[in-house]
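EI: anyone free to look at a 47-residue chain?
SC: sure, send it
EI:
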Amino acid sequence: MLARRWPTILICLMLGVVAAEAAIAVSTPVYAARTQLFVATRSGAHR
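SC: here you go
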């Protein structure tokens, strides 16, 4: 049964890949980044 349906499966797979590439090409990329840095120093040298 699979041997008879492989062209249909291949066409659907290729259509899915093309649709995904089109969606990626058309969509606007969204970049977001956030960082926070905390630096603590000791006042006075207590050893």
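EI: The two ends are 80 Å apart (CA to CA).
SC: 👍
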